[in-house]
Design brief:
Elements lengths: L19 E4 L6 E6 L6 E4 L9 H14 L1 E4 L6 H9 L5 H6 L11 E2 L2 E9 L1 E6 L2 E6 L1 H7 L21 E8 L7 E5 H6 L3 H8 L2 E6 L7 E3 L5 E3 L1 H7 L8 E6 L1 E3 L6 E3 L6 E4 L4 H12 L9 E3 L6 E5 L3 E5 L10 E8 L11
Parallel strand pairs: 3-4
Antiparallel strand pairs: 1-2, 2-3, 4-19, 5-6, 6-21, 7-8, 9-19, 9-21, 10-18, 10-20, 11-14, 11-17, 12-13, 15-16
Bound molecules: fe (ii) ion.
The site of fe (ii) ion has 3 residues, from loops.
């Protein structure tokens, strides 16, 4: 890949950790890149997102995003306006954002009034006019205990249950817990690329049946360690009885990235029911075969959050999960989340 000024930033899946320097003609911006893991991610060093960045610089960062799928910026001091501006630099669906019907439907009470794209996520503290959001103390672990459920981790893509899932998502950490709270990221491009040609052809033919309430969650799910668990308690606690939350529809499993042509796999533990035409047991075997290698420690990126870390990632190419939820269940935690609505329909890999 080369940028306008001809500098090379070829950071393929096999690149070893190294630093590349980027300079843009006519612009003072200069930044370096440090790959984070074999499969995905890059730390962008030397870019301050505060106050916005030029469209030229954003275009360069998008090029990097297309090959590494996750950008980490450390030590940022951002307002919701900065987060909003950076994320809207990616292709998006302005109408959907304005409608509050797709991604902005979630966390309605905790959206920054002037920048509804930004949802405030918090636990173990009260918000006193945090960028216009005020709320009584909310404690996720207490709420879960009350509901009789244990807080579990699960691998997922954000809003993969939507017909047009967000292409890009960001998380900005303002107050990290003292204990645990790391996030794991795994590339489903990597998962696809590790398959044999025959397996690729097979996977290209699969359709996912997403269905609630009887999805994988609660019956069995992939833990962060890569093992499968059965948890009937979780099942009884998390099954959603509201009919409005019930759904069933199919999606392609293998999808094509419109920017690079790369193929990736669409997956959300909470909504996956089975592959069309296959039993749940057969479906589980396929998921294990295809996704377990991708979430092996040597292929994942584990991010240990520091306050001021801003991460944006390709939501249709990466699955992610929280870790060790019991470790920080009673601690204060505060971060911002952006799900960027997309106009880009899913493209089946076989198309
Ligand atoms: Fe998520």
């Amino acid at each position: 890949m080369s940028t306008e000024n001809g500098c090379s930033c070829a950071l393929g899946l096999s690149s070893r950790p190294s630093t590349s320097h980027h300079k843009s003609a006519g612009q003072e911006a200069s930044f370096s890149l440090r790959p984070l893991s074999g499969d995905l991610g890059v730390e962008v060093i030397g870019v301050d997102l505060k106050g916005g960045i030029s469209s030229e610089l954003h275009a360069q960062l998008q090029e990097v995003m297309h090959t590494r799928d996750l950008l980490l910026f450390r030590g940022q001091d951002l307002t919701p306006k900065d987060e909003d501006a950076f994320m809207r630099g990616f292709p998006h669906n302005e109408e959907a954002i304005a409608s509050d019907k797709l991604s902005n439907f979630y966390f309605k009470d905790w959206r920054v009034p002037d920048h509804k794209l930004v949802a405030v996520q918090f636990s173990g503290l009260r918000l006193d006019n945090h960028f216009g959001v005020t709320s009584e103390e909310f404690n996720l672990s207490a709420k879960n205990r009350q509901a009789g459920i244990s807080f579990k981790t699960l691998w997922h893509m954000d809003l993969a249950q939507n017909q047009v899932p967000p292409e890009w998502v960001s998380l900005y950490m303002l107050q990290k817990p003292q204990n645990g709270g790391d996030t794991l990221f795994a590339s489903t491009v990597g998962a696809y690329e590790r398959l044999t040609p025959d397996q690729k052809t097979f996977v290209d033919s699969l359709e996912v049946v997403n269905r609630r309430p009887d999805s994988f969650e609660g019956t069995f799910q992939i833990e962060e360690t890569g093992t499968w668990t059965d948890d009937p308690v979780q099942a009884s606690g998390r099954v959603d009885s509201e009919s409005s939350r019930r759904f069933e529809y199919t999606q392609p499993f293998a999808i094509r990235d419109p920017y690079t042509g790369q193929k990736s796999l669409l997956y959300h533990t909470r909504f996956f029911h089975c592959f069309k035409g296959y039993s749940r047991a057969e479906s589980r075997t396929i998921i294990e075969e295809v996704l377990l290698p991708a979430i092996a420690p040597e292929h994942t990126y584990r991010h240990e959050w520091q306050n001021g870390d801003f991460i944006a990632w390709s939501n249709r190419k990466i699955i992610h999960t929280s870790t060790d939820p019991e470790k920080y269940a009673d601690e204060a935690r505060l971060f911002h989340l952006v799900f960027l609505d997309s106009k880009q329909p899913l493209i089946p890999a076989r198309a």
